[in-house]
């Protein structure tokens, strides 16, 4: 299963052309349909924005850049359980007081500039935000422009077990490098949104999570056998799910199934899901055409409120 991508759906007549070549993934064709543009043509005609993943180029004019005032940022590595050095991007408030730790789980595009800016925004809000490159063993996702190569060569090779174990190591590292690891949150987007649900079921030390449009249903794969809805009864911390009502890859019917499951298992404190009716998949991604400013602002406020309640304490 590959998040940040969506299944086949009817295509506008204007797009039944060579812009929908058969070698594309069905999900990539759906991205084209929802944005009304062709990614490869954009790559030829647009300007390359430094720091952003190659598969996301060119970036939209709505891209937000957070200033670095009153925060510090750095790159580091953490030794994972298998001995691999996982690259990290870290942003945290300036000062000596340890800040609660939020792990930021990237999309399929890896730890590129937008994920780093999310870390900066969280640092501005008083958190030690750490984004691990959970694909690093398999290649640099930020450098691959072709979706099919990205999915087959990197994303599909990241096992659930490795991902969850790496995140465990990140919290331990953060607790030794200026973070207060006794207060733990996690957020993620698309591929990373699914990971948030899974990690909340995995870790008994987690205090709260926010999952942005992460897949909750589907079929298990050999390396990714976990399905979020099947893990709902195991959640150790409350998760806020934030989804778009126009997301064709994660339809509202799937969201309703997850909401019903969360109610059925009756965890306390309870998890919750918010649907933004006019938003599509990727509505938080201000660097992409899917960005929905109204939904993104409301969702970010809800995110900080959730972490303020369950992580900061």
From TrEMBL:
Domain Dienelactone hydrolase: 89-310
Protein origin, superkingdom: Bacteria
Hydrolase listed as a keyword: yes
Residue ranges, annotated region (Disordered): 1-22
Keywords: Hydrolase
Protein name: Dienelactone hydrolase family protein
Organism, scientific name: Sphingobium algorifonticola
GO molecular function terms attached to this record: hydrolase activity
């Amino acid at each position: 299963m590959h998040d940040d991508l969506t299944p086949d759906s009817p295509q506008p007549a204007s797009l039944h052309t060579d812009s929908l070549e058969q070698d594309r993934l069905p999900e990539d064709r759906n991205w084209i349909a929802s944005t009304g543009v062709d990614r490869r043509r954009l790559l030829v005609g647009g300007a390359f924005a430094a720091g952003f993943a190659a598969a996301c180029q060119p970036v939209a004019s709505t891209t937000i850049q957070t200033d670095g005032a009153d925060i510090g940022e750095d790159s580091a590595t953490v030794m994972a359980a298998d001995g691999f050095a996982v690259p990290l991007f870290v942003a945290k408030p300036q000062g000596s007081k340890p800040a609660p730790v939020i792990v930021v789980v990237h999309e399929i595009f890896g730890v590129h500039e937008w994920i780093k800016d999310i870390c900066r925004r969280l640092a501005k809000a008083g958190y030690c935000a750490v984004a691990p490159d959970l694909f690093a063993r398999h290649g640099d996702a930020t450098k691959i422009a072709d979706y099919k190569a990205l999915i087959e060569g990197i994303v599909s090779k990241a096992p659930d077990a490795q991902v969850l174990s790496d995140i465990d190591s990140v919290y331990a590292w953060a607790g030794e490098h200026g973070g207060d690891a006794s207060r733990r949150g996690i957020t993620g987007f698309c591929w990373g949104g699914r990971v948030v649900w899974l990690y909340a079921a995995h870790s008994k030390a987690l205090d709260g999570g926010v999952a942005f449009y992460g897949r909750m249903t589907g079929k298990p794969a050999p390396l990714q056998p976990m399905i979020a809805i099947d893990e709902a009864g195991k959640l150790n911390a409350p998760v806020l799910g934030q989804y778009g009502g126009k997301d064709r890859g994660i339809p509202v019917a799937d969201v309703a199934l997850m909401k019903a499951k969360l109610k059925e298992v009756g965890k306390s404190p309870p998890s919750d899901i918010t649907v933004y009716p006019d938003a599509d998949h990727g509505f938080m991604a201000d660097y992409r055409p899917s960005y929905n400013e109204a939904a993104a602002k409301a969702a970010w406020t809800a995110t900080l409120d959730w972490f303020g309640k369950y992580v900061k304490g």
